Structure formats: C-alpha cells, structure tokens
Amino acid sequence: MNEAEHSGQGKYESATLTIDEWKQVMEKAESSDGSDLHMYILRSWANQQVVTNASINAFREKVIDDAENRKTGANAIGHISRFGHSVTDNPKATCYSWNEIRGEWTIGGSQTTSLRITMGHSGMPER
Questions:
Q1: Which sign does the torsion angle of CA 38, 72, 17, 40 carry?
Q2: If DSSP codes are grouped into helix, strand and coil, which group holds residue 111?
Q3: Fold category of 13-118 in CATH
Q4: 26 near 119, Cβ under 8 Å?
Q5: How far is CA 48 from CA 44, 87, 104, 108, in A?
Q6: What's the pLDDT score for residue 8?
Q7: How confident is the model at residue 74 (pLDDT cuts 50, 70, 90)?
C-alpha cells in the first residue's frame, strides 16, 4: 500500500483499551463540552460496535449534502481520539477503524466487551 492509497494512516496505531482506560475515556467524555454527543458515540459503539458519520450528523440535526459533511463526524471522533491518547499516553493510539466507503468508525469485539462492562452491562448482549 502506498501513501496515496491510504493517506494519513501512518499517523495512527491500533490500541485496545482496557476497562480502566475506557472508564477514564468515559469520565473525560462526560465532563467535556459536547458530552451528549461524546456519550452518544460511546453508547453507539457499546450497542453496535459502530457509529456512522450519518448518525453523528443526525444527532447534530444535520442532513448530509456531500462528502464535506464527513468533517462533522470526524471532528466528533477526534475528541474521543484525544481522550484515548490521554489515557494511553500514546499520541498515535486509536481504538477504532475508519471505513471510508461506508463512512463509519468501528471498534472490535474486545473493545466492545470492555466498553460495555465499563458502562455496567454484560460483555455482550444476550441472545
């Protein structure tokens, strides 16, 4: 893969947050400006492992007109990223994957389990 295929990817590295780190991220999210949106993102990840650019725009009462509207979601996710950088003490740490085609940020199963436990729920929903 060359830089033109995936520009900016080298700025980040995958980090799996522990339950304690998720707790710290949640505390930062709850006490920050925009806490409603930040907690919406975290609850979306806990419920379905994904939050979309479209859902973030809908939360902000916006309707997407073009790809430029993806900045709205990216800015919101940027706050969560900074919380993660702070608790891991790693400025490149990221707990999610970005899907450019679908316009969504996804966390893995172990991340979801830890986040759900942090929120006081079972590791995964019962079937």
A1: positive
A2: helix
A3: Arc Repressor Mutant, subunit A (1.10.10)
A4: yes
A5: 6, 23, 12, 10
A6: 58
A7: confident
